[in-house]
Design a protein that fits this description.
Number of strands: 4
Distance between the termini: 30 Å
Number of helices: 0
Strand order of the largest sheet: 1-2-3-4
Structural class: mainly beta
Oligomer: single chain
Strand content: 35-45%
Order of helices and strands: EEEE
């Protein structure tokens, strides 16, 4: 659920992690886009920083990145 009091307009690009308990997503507002992570059970959300379309990459896997230049 978007945090309307915090300025969120909506959430997009949800991705469940392999643990089945954590979801990555993008929150957007008039100020831009921010990556967030949420514990599904507790609904606790952590702000990860600016960005769009989050994807989890397993540690020790081939490095990947996306430039938003």
């Amino acid at each position: 659920m978007p945090d309307r009091d915090g300025g969120d307009v909506g959430h997009v690009y949800p991705e469940m992690l392999a643990d089945g308990k954590t979801m990555l997503f993008t929150a957007y507002s008039r100020d831009g886009y921010e990556l967030r992570m949420m514990d599904i059970e507790s609904k606790k959300t952590v702000k990860l920083g600016p960005g769009v379309t989050p994807h989890f990459i397993e540690p020790d896997s081939y490095p990947a990145w996306r430039c938003l230049c």
